[in-house]
Design goal:
265 residues, alpha/beta, Rossmann fold, five-stranded mixed beta sheet, four-stranded parallel beta sheet, 9 strands, EC 4.2.1.75, Uroporphyrinogen-III synthase, 4pyrrol_synth_uPrphyn_synth, uroporphyrinogen-III synthase activity
Length: 265
Amino acid sequence: MNPVQPLKDYQVLITRGKGQADGLKESIEKNGGTPLLVPLLEFTLPDHMEDVQQRFEELLTYDWIILTSQNGVDFFFKLLGNPPLKLPKIAVIGSKTETALKRHGYKADFVPAQFVAERFVAEFNTLLYPGARVLLAKGNLARAVIAEAINEAGAICDEVIIYHTVLPRSSEKKLVQLIKNHEIDIMTFTSSSTVNHFLQIMKSHELDTYIDRIIIACIGPIAAKTAEKHGLSVDVCPDVYTTDAMVAELIRFILKRNKKGGTFK
């Protein structure tokens, strides 16, 4: 256990989907905080499986496959079943996505220096020749930035939805209760989807005034922009877009505020 407990007495909301919250939970506990697990994401198979099947039948006609998340990796190989002996080159966004790919026995051929779509495509497009074929396997809520930029650069990018992101029904009641009872000191968001689902619940239960004093931490600029666009005040957003960096930046924020004599309680 960490002898220094900067998150002691802080209850921290984790909104990540089931199976993806362990690392963040451990980091919060290590620093003395109490994690509150309320997954605001759940992942399901896509509605139109015939589209997936068609793309997979054409898989070897592509030069590159792009996988943008751990979920993308896991659903890709789940739907693919028995993969061919040799796949096209694989590009991923983020170290966690790269690690997930390794678990399936494959090595990423390209990982960007920064883990956001805009930086990814700026670097990735330098690897493409005119007419190169790219398959982008993604979730239904993913932005169109990557495909649009690749097509504008003269290559061909086809998109295939391999999973859907939905709000777990069981989480709504639990979140409302925690907020009404003022049991949350810090909220963490790891994607725009978690922000949007959170706001959906806040609006339907008219809870906006309950969250004014809660610290808000976002894993990166995209989630932060989504939060700010809807009126949330983001206190923490790390330069490196990982949960460890988010917790480290959160601790710095708290220590700095405490040093100035501020309080969150």
